[in-house]
Amino acid sequence: MANKMVYCCFDANTEGDIPVNNDIKYFNLFKAWKNNPNIDFDFFNVHEEYKIPKKYLEEDNEAKIKEYLTKRLDITQVFVVIVGEHTANLFKYVRWEIAKALEKNIPIVAINISGENGRDDKYCPAIIRDELVLHVPFDLEKIKTAISIWPQNYKSLKSQGVKGQRILKQ
Hints:
The chain is an alpha/beta fold and 170 residues long. The chain has one domain (26-167): 3-Layer(aba) Sandwich (Rossmann fold). The protein is built from 6 helices and 8 strands, in the order E-E-E-H-E-H-H-H-E-H-E-E-H-E. The chain has helices spanning 24-35, 46-49, 54-59, 62-74, 91-103, 140-159, and strands at 5-9, 14-15, 18-19, 44-45, 78-83, 108-112, 133-137, 166-167. The strands form 2 sheets. Strands 4-1-5-6-7-8 form a 6-stranded parallel beta sheet, sandwiched between helices. It is globular and about 45 Å long.
């Protein structure tokens, strides 16, 4: 898999340091795959490039946090949104991040933790339901393929005026 600048968007709600009904464990699995020498899963995690200072997170300084998120988006080649149970209802950051990715014309891959191969109508954020987005199940091989092929395919389809969801062929 070719190394891509990947931005991962997911439910990271916490109460203090305790995760609450969130999907960060799936993002952590991405990092574990990357660090496993027996798994071919290489991506450049833009979250590591522009770390948000802890004080901004502790203060929930929305303006400063979004400033750092924007820096991440500026170097992103593929925007991955991990679609979980609460994703469609997260507006403060998740919806904002998705809107910015759309605005910046960044290829988006929606990864469904439900296992759905296609748009997960129950949990997919409304903002991307009708957009040119590749929807895949949370599966290592499908994720690798999506990250690898979608940026080029997206550009081609976008230049042809194509819209709507896309899925990987089985």
